[in-house]
Amino acid sequence: MSLVAACCNTPAVENAHWHNKGDFVELSTEIAGQKRKTYVTGPKDSKRGIVAIYDIFAYHPTTHQFYDRIALSHGGFQLSAPDYFPEGGIPPEYMGDSAKLMGWIGQHGDYHKNHILEVTLAAVEDLRKAGCTSFSLIGQCWGVLMAAKVVSEEGTPFLSAGGPHPSFISLETTNDVKTPLILLPSQNEADLVPVIQRNNTRGFAVESEHHRFDNMHHGWTGGRGDWTVPEQFKAALEAIELFGAFYAKVAAANDSKL
Fold it and tell me: Where does the Dienelactone hydrolase domain start and stop, copy by copy (predicted)?
């Protein structure tokens, strides 16, 4: 798997500000004997759930704004963004050193060793207790790979997955995906159309989608996003609209089967 070069050398935006609309709560299920928090946002009467996997900077004002706005789009979703990095996101001094960055991801963001699936399923169970009957998964950067791994599991509870500016996504890493995908690469990512084309041969009720943002840099919806820049904010709103529409469509397709 290859890391997007921009992921190594683009730091988080330090001047970002956002007043969170949601709250931090504890997940009901302990993970490896440890309590984990999650950020929950969106209308509490929605039956549509989204679990979100942040980028390597963990919680960030721009990331929170992204979640809050998605949760209010297309009739609303209950969104839960668990804390996958309880010790904090990537140290800023690692930016520009791909070896240190990959080492950190291997230590803190390994799918099996760091219990990514268990944390994600714990968030699903809490959303289910809150009344949700359908679930989609969204990741950012590294989080898109984690989302792809989760929906490659047999019996996954998720109806769809995807995310913006994905790292490590390829035909190989999406070989066993069992849901439709929505991918929004930036100018820094490789051509992901073949991934979507293959996924659309698998007979899902909703077709996978691909929307390329060639005017945006890697990370513009998360820690590397500066939404005081009009172009970035406009592109972010477009991305939010696309994700909200896709996840609403997937949930509606599921409801029609019930």
Answer: 38-221
- The pLDDT value recorded for residue 78 is 98
* Contact indicator for 148, 173 with CB cutoff of 8 Å: yes
Angle at 161 between CA 141 and CA 6, to 5 degrees: 15
Task: Give the C-alpha separation, 6 to 3, whole Å.
Answer: 8
Q: What is the DSSP letter of 92?
A: G
Q: What is the largest CA-CA distance in the chain?
A: 50
Q: Which residues of 136-157 are buried (b: 16+ CB within 10 A; e: fewer)?
A: bbbbbbbbbbbbbbbbbeeebb
**What is the distance between the terminal CA atoms of the chain, rounded to a whole angstrom?**
39
Bridge-partner residues for 136, per DSSP? 50, 160
d(CA 13, CA 36): 26
C-alpha–C-alpha distance, residues 52 and 193, integer Å:
23
CATH of residue 68's domain is 3.40.50.1820
Distance CA 234, CA 160 (A): 25
How many structural domains is the chain composed of?
1
Domain limits at 250? 5-257
Q: What is the pLDDT of residues 9-25, one digit of tens each?
A: 677 888 789 999 999 99
Cα–Cα dist 161/151, whole Å: 7
Using the Cα atoms of residue 167, residue 172, residue 178 and residue 181 in order, give the sign of their dihedral: positive
Rounded Cα distance, 12 and 38, in Å: 21
pLDDT at 158 over 90: yes
Sign of CA dihedral 36, 39, 45, 50: negative
Residues 6+ apart with CB under 8 A from 201: none
